[in-house]
Amino acid sequence: MGIDTRTVEYRDGDTVLEGYMAWDDTSHDPRPGVLVSHAWAGRGEFEESRAERLAELGYVGFALDVYGKGVLGDSKEENSALMQPMLDDREMLQRRLHLALEQIRKQKEVDPTKVAAMGYCFGGLCVLDLARTGADIQGIASFHGLFMKPGNTDENKISAKVLVMHGWDDPMATPDQVLGLTEELNGMGADWQIHAYGNTTHAFTNPSANDPEFGTVYSPVAEARSWQNLQLFLAELF
Question: How many domains does the chain have?
Fold first, then answer.
């Protein structure tokens, strides 16, 4: 097996966006593609590594970009300043997610009829929004995502299967918000499942997360369980 990678530029108007794609170059047949939506800092090494791990499993991983080419935060303050405009304008965010979906389908290595999406933290909110728009996509997986409703999708139906992996003690997605998400997904006709990990907070997949006061702590056990759940989910989809 040899994992190959390339960057893919695309645009939202005047904003240049840049995805990062990874695939196993020993196969020449189109295969399922999986979008990877980034956390609040922007598309970086963490998301790229997840795209490469997907390639090792036989998929095409595509780490998308909603901020703009080369735009990355380096502190909580910078990350929040990058994320907040997207939370304030969910239509813009959803448009950029659909642009990424269009891009992955254009890649010759990808079977355009077999596409899923996954995301971390803010990226979890992103892929939930993609499903909420009624996007023609097989499934979405959220890792320690945010659950706030966008406000412009209430009348839609969700065709994608939904997998949510959640730290029960996550201060950024409370038990009440989890229950609210279940009601929302039921109302939109979704095929959904939620895996909640006890004694687990936000950012449990990130080895550099170690800020208990902020509510972000890495959990190798929850990370391993969530990755296994993802693999089962993708096998079911494809």
Answer: 1
Nearest to 113 by CA among 95, 137, 85, 93: 137
- Mean pLDDT, consecutive 10-residue segments, the chain of 238 residues? 94 98 94 98 98 98 98 97 98 98 98 98 98 98 98 97 98 98 98 98 97 97 98 98
Residue 51's domain comprises 3-237
Q: What local confidence, expressed as pLDDT, does residue 129 receive?
A: 98
Strands (DSSP E) contained in the chain are 3-12, 15-24, 31-37, 60-63, 110-120, 139-143, 161-167, 192-197, 210-211, 216-217
Read off the CATH number of the domain in which 227 is found. Answer: 3.40.50.1820
**Tokens for 160?**
């994608």
CA dihedral (158, 164, 170, 174) positive or negative: positive
- The whole-angstrom separation of Cα 191 and Cα 64 is 25
Helix count and strand count (H, E) for the chain: 6, 10
Could you tell me the pTM of the whole model? 0.98
